[in-house]
From TrEMBL:
Family to which this protein belongs: Belongs to the short-chain dehydrogenases/reductases (SDR) family.
Pfam family, one: adh_short
GO biological process: monocarboxylic acid metabolic process
Species of provenance: Ilyomonas limi
UniProt protein name: SDR family oxidoreductase
Superkingdom as given in the UniProt entry: Bacteria
Matches recorded under PANTHER family: 3-OXOACYL-(ACYL-CARRIER-PROTEIN) REDUCTASE (PTHR42879), 3-OXOACYL-[ACYL-CARRIER-PROTEIN] REDUCTASE FABG (PTHR42879:SF2)
SUPFAM superfamilies: NAD(P)-binding Rossmann-fold domains
Amino acid sequence: MTDQIKDKVVYITGGSKGIGYGIAKVLLDNGAKVAITSRHLQAAQEAAKSLSEDDTKLLALESDVSSLQSEMNAVKAVTDHFGKLDVLVANAGIGHFASIEDLTVENWNSTINTNLTGVFHSVKASIEALKQTKGYIITIASLAGANFFANGSAYNASKFGLVGFTQAVMLDLRQYGIKVTTIMPGSVATHFDNHIPSEKDAWKIQPEDIGQIVADLLNIPQRTLPSKIEVRPTTPGK
């Protein structure tokens, strides 16, 4: 347990599985108070039960990041329950992969609305609370935000946009003592894009590894800010 993390209130979007779940687990182990969301309340509640039996440390909420009002309601629920907000981890994301010829308008819109506009909503909803605590905003982008690939037009656009958005927000909010960082993971062993993690994924970054990076960021002295972090598996898959 780390004193700089103990009793910090952390709001994690998309925290019911994958990277968000891994971050929640590590931060809870370090003494934080954590709120996680899913678009489906039951999924958030089930994840919360498996993370901790102490409901004074963990709050499960339903929220859809594509709705600003939904995110405003979630942040209010967090501050009403815990009394403050110290950290926003904007993690919720989806992926639709297809050639531009086959990519549907619906899949384009849902990708942008979740991965980019959704983060905008989470940040907008959290700013005033984070000003009060001189808090931290961490967005979960991707190496796809710096490296384009075939069939990735929607996903690349959302993540390239997210990286640029986060860096601009960092410059906007420094004056309030709010830190802003984007983490850009490569291959992570999650259920993303309907993948089922297995032993074959042992070479990949594990969700709790990203959680450890978040914990490390929260332990860095206030005067220092790593604003963009690229993360790769040490050994690439064969």
